[in-house]
Amino acid sequence: MSDAQREQMEYDVVVVGAGPSGLAAAIRLKQLAAAAGSELAVCVVEKGSEVGAHILSGAVFEPRALNELIPDWRERGAPLNTPAADDRFLYLTKNRALRLPTPPPRCCTTTAGGCAALRPAIWGSARTASRPSATRRGSS
Length: 140
Description:
Blueprint: E1 13-16, H1 20-35, E2 42-45, H2 64-69, E3 89-92, E4 97-100, E5 108-111, E6 114-118, E7 129-130
Parallel strand pairs: 1-2
Antiparallel strand pairs: 3-4, 5-6, 6-7
């Protein structure tokens, strides 16, 4: 074994991956530390040539989470310039583009503050995940 010296850097938190979840975690940790008046050293490690190289380039995404995480992202000049007006799912052939029905979103249907049923991930599936219906306070 060699006794070669290696450069070392110390961090409080190391986030592996600069995709949406990794970036959101790193940003939120820094926000929480700033709100608490403390300093937090956060490092994001990415295997790509730049942050988000594998997943964010040319992506179409729902900006609600970004609005919650960084409310003034538009004013800061984020390079997100083309809002998507609608969704279209196309089957592409050599000469044509055939429009397919737009799949419904995978979400919970809420009743009385609880999740009543989870829509199946695959169309036509009869399987659903459900939980007992929530009872309202004061009712028996």
